[in-house]
Design a protein that fits this description.
heterodimer, A: alpha/beta, Amidase signature (AS) enzymes, 8-stranded mixed β-sheet, 3-stranded mixed β-sheet, globular, B: mainly alpha, Histone, subunit A
Chain lengths: 485, 95
């Protein structure tokens, strides 16, 4: 089978279970394609030879009852992997080799999957274009010199470019859904507390969530079912009854009430996005859903709130990088000088900017005016959703205010870069699940995504809606393999 | 409100990130445009709103105070940029 890498995760699992393909064949196919795809710069660290060894070992005694039997998979380099370098896209962790495994990746290996390597991302997941990575820009398989989105840019590029059948990212303000939208793939940000944060390099602890990124909704549901678990090692992990998402997946969404929030019709939104949204509404109706107009009045305050809360938490989380216990160390004349030079040389510009914002809003005299204020507005944003969910089962919005942009286009204007996350950030602030599915193309032929937001712990419902709509939309990604010589 | 160079120097000290003049000026420009964007929150009256500190509405679970990882000194030390096998080493702090 020469088209192994074209198969979806579900097809690969079936072919391995039916013994039509071996893990070694599948692993080798993805390694070969990854080797030919260096120009995408999707990988930070490759682990191919040990992946092949593990695949051979799997084939000798295949356990076909597992959910991901012998499936190779690359993961975002924000997940700590035991004995494999984990950088978070930063110079400061360039040489960091964890002695432990994140719970989410451990759940994946427990179901039989095999690590291919670690995928590029914005430094400490701070960015919307993968341009803040110490390891360089990532190319979007859709077109040359196009950003894949961020921060899970390497993950999105690797799934869209078929370097891995499926992957995981993390989403603090849109870092799974925005790159999924930019690359024509599916990305789910689960409810806060669904997937353990243990072993994930921390950015903003009250917002961070890991989630699956896939070629289709069914694959996404299967990986979500594998990675979501209660974990006592994460104090905010929540012990709720988790569905068997892929088994319970249905395209019957008759009678579901889907809300359309008028505040998401933002100033200056391109006509193409509005048209996509209208198309989405028609598809939802065709699937038997009932469309309800709703209001989320504090939507426009979500981004300013996020840019206080997230940097504040980041400045505190990143205080640990001091050049003493692990990571990069610069030479200094004394201890303080060593700290200051280490952090100045070890962190990139965007990370330093956010640490500075966070330090400022938490500093004496400004805490109430900024941080406390933001926490109060965050409450109002969550109340908006609580109110809306008295009337509807889910909410439909565009995933992003535009399609993917060119590398370098927004790099020097932080605020315009931040605006990318305008539709995704409110979901993180309220701790809700949200999924982005590809829904169309703009005039340049670049993919555009629609976002379905659910009630807390209602992943099954938004997966079902996404599954039903995916069938109607019948999206096709135009990938020409331009980077393969 | 405007963030001046003096404030940038102060924040850089608190953040333990050294900045030279050029970087301080760039940061002042960036932070001012970001804070202008953040000021929008002042449009809202929030006196009677409870701050939201966590969306996970559960009380933290208690656990027994037990040591679970033993004999991991080597694992902990192995990633340090400078070590002498037993300790983390930092520049001299006592004269």
């Amino acid at each position: 089978m020469s088209d192994i890498t074209k198969q979806s995760l579900s097809e690969l699992v079936k072919n391995i279970k039916d013994k039509k393909l071996s893990s070694e064949e599948v692993t080798k196919a993805f390694i070969d394609r990854s080797e030919k795809s260096k120009e995408l710069n999707a990988y930070i660290t490759e682990d191919y030879s040990s992946a092949l060894e593990k695949a051979k070992k799997f084939d000798q005694k295949p356990n076909l009852d597992l959910k991901l039997p012998g499936i190779p998979m690359a993961v975002k380099d924000l997940f700590c992997t035991k004995d494999i370098r984990t950088t978070a896209g930063s110079k400061i962790l360039n040489n960091f080799v964890p002695s432990y495994e994140s719970t989410v990746t451990q759940n994946i290996w427990n179901e039989g999957a095999i690590l291919l390597g670690k995928l590029n991302c914005d430094e400490f997941a701070m960015g919307s274009s993968n341009e803040t990575s110490f390891f360089g820009n990532v190319q979007n398989p859709i077109d040359k010199n196009l950003v894949p989105g961020g921060s899970s840019g390497g993950s999105a590029s690797a799934v869209a470019g078929q370097l891995t059948p499926i992957t995981i990212g993390t989403d603090t303000g849109g870092s799974i859904r925005q790159p999924a939208s930019f690359t024509g793939t599916v990305g789910l940000k689960p409810t806060y507390g669904s997937c353990s944060r243990y072993g994930i390099v921390a950015f903003a602890s009250s917002l961070d969530q890991a989630g699956p990124m896939a070629q289709n909704v069914k694959d996404c549901a299967l990986l979500q079912e594998v990675i979501s678990s209660y974990d006592s090692k994460d104090s905010t992990s929540i012990d709720f009854k988790r569905n068997i998402y892929s088994k319970e997946l249905t395209n019957n969404i008759k009678g579901k009430k889907i809300g359309i929030p008028k505040e998401y019709r933002v100033d200056g939104m391109p006509k193409e996005i509005e048209e996509l949204w209208q198309k989405g509404i028609r598809y939802a109706k065709d699937c038997g859903a009932e469309i309800v107009d709703i209001s989320l009045p504090h939507t426009s305050y979500a981004l300013p709130t996020y840019y206080i809360v997230a940097p504040a938490e980041a400045s505190s989380n990143l205080a640990r990088y001091d050049g003493v216990k692990y990571g990069f160390r610069a030479k200094g004349e004394n201890l303080i000088d060593m700290y200051e030079k280490t952090r100045s040389e070890g962190f990139g510009a965007e990370v330093q900017r956010r640490i500075m914002i966070g330090t400022y809003v938490l500093s004496s005299g400004y805490y109430d005016a900024y941080y406390l204020k933001a926490q109060k507005v965050r409450k109002l944003i969550k109340n908006d959703f609580d109110e809306a969910y008295k009337k509807v089962d889910a909410i439909l919005t565009p995933s992003t205010p535009s399609s993917a942009f060119k590398i370098g286009e927004k790099k020097d204007d932080p605020v315009s870069m931040y605006l990318n996350d305008i539709f995704t950030v409110p979901v993180n602030l309220a701790g809700l699940p949200g999924i982005s599915i590809p829904a169309g193309h703009d005039s340049k032929g670049y993919p555009l995504g629609l976002q379905i937001i659910g009630k807390a712990f209602d992943e099954q419902n938004i997966l079902n809606i996404a599954y039903a709509m995916e069938e109607k939309i019948a999206f096709k990604n135009n990938i020409t393999d331009w980077w393969i010589k | 409100m405007s963030i001046d160079l003096k404030t940038i120097k102060h924040i850089s000290k608190l953040s333990r990130i050294s900045v030279d003049e050029q970087k301080a000026e760039k940061l002042a420009g960036d932070l001012n445009s970001i804070f202008k964007f953040i000021e929008k929150l002042n449009e809202l009256k929030t006196e009677n709103v409870e701050p939201l500190t966590s969306v996970a509405e559960t009380t933290l679970k208690l656990r027994a105070d037990e040591i679970k990882s033993k004999n991991i000194r080597e694992q902990i030390i192995k990633n340090s940029p400078q070590d002498n096998e037993d300790y983390f080493v930092v520049p001299k702090v006592i004269e």
